[in-house]
Amino acid sequence: MFEGFTLDRIQVGDVTLRVRYGGSGPAVVLLHGHPRTHTTWYQVAPELARDYTVVCPDLRGYGQSGKPAADDEHTQYSKAAMAADVAGLMTALGHETYSVVGHDRGALVAFRSAMDHPDRVSKLVVMDGLPVVEHLERCSARFATEWWHWFFFAQTAKPAERVICADPETWYNAWTVNSPDQLGPENHADFLAAIRDPATVHGMVEDYRAGLGIDRRTEEEDRAAGRQIDCPMLMLWSTKDDLEQLYGDPLAIWRPWCPQVIGHGIDSTHHVAEQAPGALVDTLRGFL
């Protein structure tokens, strides 16, 4: 995987991030979702690297990046902390400005990056994601049924980690929908190592605990203050996933946050970087 890329570990604030980077040209950061690592981009990053400097980190808490102890507010796993990681990483790599592409949980980090670091983020791509507050304010019985894991992960009295770590490969469908055939053998091996690590499972769950608390409050404060995304934004969603089915047009939800947002669906299941990499690369090149 990632032929011609450098695999590195870079200290950024209170965490060390595992990161791959390669290519040349304007900088683009690719941020993975749950429960993946940066290797989910293995088919996308080398293609983009023909035209861009591509940077693919493991988010804090995920993969082989740092997993700091969390306070009662889960501040260390807030999207503001993760966006600060991205800014610090790009400074360490010598990039003052960069585009950010985020999928799933990485989409929340990409969104936070554009909100918190508008002088650094030149373009924003969000894939299969909405602001947390928009999800929660639309929380119907269907959302609670299909996205129940958000609320399960958020529990601390009966921690989700105990259930997941009892049989992580079954929990994460490691030999069915997330099999080596679906993910690719090397990407699957990295995914498997991550979900087998109790510290990583804890870090991933902390991400969701922060989401329902400090991240929601931050977004509510942004909205009350009228803050919006300044840079061009592309919103993509997987047509074989349930975002559009739950909410209708995702662009209508994003417009109050970014009036200039554009976007469309991609014929794919949720993990589009693995399932429809060619279509994704073409779309990203057209926007970036």
UniProtKB/TrEMBL annotation:
Provide one Gene Ontology biological process annotation: acylglycerol catabolic process
Gene3D superfamilies listed in its UniProt record:
alpha/beta hydrolase (3.40.50.1820)
A GO molecular-function annotation: monoacylglycerol lipase activity
- Please list every transmembrane segment annotated in the UniProt record, as residue ranges: none
Tell me which residues make up the AB hydrolase-1 domain: 26-158
Q: Out of the domains of life, which is the source?
A: Bacteria
Gene Ontology cellular-component terms for this entry are: membrane
Which InterPro entries does the record match to this protein?
AB_hydrolase_1 (IPR000073), AB_hydrolase_fold (IPR029058), AB_hydrolase_sf (IPR050266)
What PANTHER family does the record tag this protein with? HYDROLASE, PUTATIVE (AFU_ORTHOLOGUE AFUA_2G14860)-RELATED, MONOACYLGLYCEROL LIPASE
Protein name, entry field: Haloacetate dehalogenase
- Species of origin reads Kribbella voronezhensis
